[in-house]
Amino acid sequence: MATATKSKKKKKNANPGIKLEPLGDRVVVQRDASEETTGGGIVLPGSAKETPARGRVISVGEGALLNDGKRSEMQVSAGDHVLFSSYAGEVFKVGDEELLLMREDEIFAVLED
Q1: Which end of the chain is more exposed for a tag (fewer CB within 10 A), N or C?
Q2: Per-residue pLDDT tens over the stretch 26-77
Q3: pTM of the model
Q4: Is 67 contained in some domain?
Q5: Residue 77 sits in which domain range?
Q6: What is the mean pLDDT of residues 88-104?
Q7: DSSP code of 8?
Q8: Are 24 and 62 in contact (CB under 8 A)?
């Protein structure tokens, strides 16, 4: 019976305070803060704010497992600023921080700073 062994290589983590290692092709993202005011200077209440569809990648998994037993290379890395659907991923909390866990294919683009 064959068993899969996990490599023990160190992964780059964009936020050293959070120790998360997602599995497979999953990515942990910290959503950007939402805008408090409109372009015209109107202050928005909490219920009227849009949830931003962009954020910073905190950590990434090892990649999807392919049919031949190898892993695909991830296209995003920790620290990348990414664009995704506002409905993408699962929201969870670590301490006071709200994070998203999503698959790599739910990310649309990497934004250049």
Answers
A1: N
A2: 999 998 876 666 667 666 655 545 667 899 999 999 999 899 989 999 999 9
A3: 0.71
A4: yes
A5: 26-33+50-111
A6: 90
A7: -
A8: yes
